Input
Amino acid sequence: MTMNGSSSPAPVEVAPPPRHRPPWPSGLQANGSLGLGVLAAIGLLVWVGVNGYKQTLLVTAATYALIALGMYVPFVLAGSLSLAYGAYASIGGYAVALISTETGLPLWFGWLIGPVIAAVAAVVLGLATRRLSGFYLVAVTLLFSEAFQNYLSNASFTGGNAGLASFRSLDVFGWHPSNEQLIIASAAVVCVVAFLLNRLRLSPWGIVVRSMREVPSAVEAAGTRVPILNLVALAMGAGIGALAGALFTQMSGSIQPNTFTLNLVFLAIFMPIIGGTGTPWGAVLGALIVVELTLNLPSLHTSGTLLVSLGVLLIMLVAPRGVLGYLDTGRKELMRALTPTKGTDG
Amino acid sequence: MADQPLLLEGSGLKKRYGGVVALSDVSIRLAPGEILGLVGPNGAGKTTLVDCISGTQSANSGVLTLKGARLSGPASRRAKLGLARTFQYPQLAQDLTVGENLLLGRVAMQHGSWWRMILQSIRGTFWVGRSSDATVVEAIAEELQITRLDRLAGDLTLGEQRLLEVGRALGQDPVVLLLDEPFAGSDANGVAGIIDVIRTVQRRGHGIILVDHNVDLVSSLVDRIMLLDRGQVVFDGDPAQCIASPEMQRVYFGAAALEAGADSEIRPDDEVLRHVP
Output
């Protein structure tokens, strides 16, 4: 390793511990993020308890977090901004609602088919704009989102503006989870998705996708079909967004065309920025902060969104890598201060 | 070498941007183990030729073959046939680490089609392990004396970035390596490192196309030189002959230098040639 032949005494070579990953990941390290995430989730669940209002709050936060995680893949990793997440979440929600009210099929089928349909929609929208710059993807997905909401209001099978309600209770292969169990499951789903996305981020797939955002020509020249990988990233994000819609619809017991609005999508863009773009957990943290500011602080109830906007501006100035990035830098500084300097023998 | 089949063969390559002809009817050939130098003044079409071979841009017409297989379509397809390249302006993901940038060259080809992308995403999510690719990449880094793979690529000097790009291209196990000005901005160490790599690739029987402004450096390295001027090949042959050729003097110093003839003070080993624009 030492190629400059410095004059420091030869360091004692210690065999590095076996690693699961190459010791050079970028962004925030994955070490212990699942543990911290689960701990935070358990803390939240304890805080929520059996309080109905807090349960609704947690489900909303989980939904926001999933939408933010869905956007994380194409937006933060691949660099493609899609604004159709209101539509994707609606697709997921209506899939669960329609399977429940119109068919005798098992409910999990609705959870499965929604993300698939949303992924197909994302691919179609991506294909339509594949030869154009990213701006057109934003414009087309925005148009689609609004048109789709309009369609949901006017179509008869969706129940029009009133939407759909009174679903069957979830039946997972004979197991009928209680409401409390479902609340725990909601938090668990978010943790699982964040955990898997973080592994995905650090995997070869993640490296190719993140490189694609910055240097598409180099990625293409190295052997990856960039336009197709972009579609795959968009589809994956849409699928997770649909999962968010399914979760919220299942838990709230109803869905309307305006359940998932553009306002939510705009907030979701900033959730990773608030929490930290270096890891998907940042999107989850950002969702929690946004829910706390916009829904849970009664004194701020009307000005919550304004506060979020100001908070985003402040965070961009003070901590451009988000709250988690800020904390990570602090942790590293602390470790450096606490670790005795290497290379001094005795 | 002569009776060996050519690695890369191209003919009738044309490329125009609007009304500007960047390449007009260029032919190129590369034998196994051969290093071909591409020189010429700014705007001669060197980078356009490299782009048209690698597929970064598509030529308006012309035929290219690599080991007898037709080279066409997007760059990713050509990469799978064994083409790797570096860029005139290093194309590195600045937010990714040196190691990750190196690994890109190794793993990008595993994402060549949509179903492989999906398989790879599932694999990356559920299967975490130290891949053989990481080991290969670390060996390449050692060979190129690239240290501290956990640095961000954006923090590297220009010379280090060029070295890293060469390393990324090596990870592709290329049959033909296209190097677009690999020495620009490098210090002596970087130049030596890249020359070592070029020699190694050559020994493996692969071909290299080297673009550079530094005619002296190029001619000392390559087996053959192609001189481009305004999209046309004006000289193709031995490096020493190329430097002494009237075409060389005309292209770089204009007709006046040519007319000055033998009395001209311009000589191949002149200081001025070493810094040709």
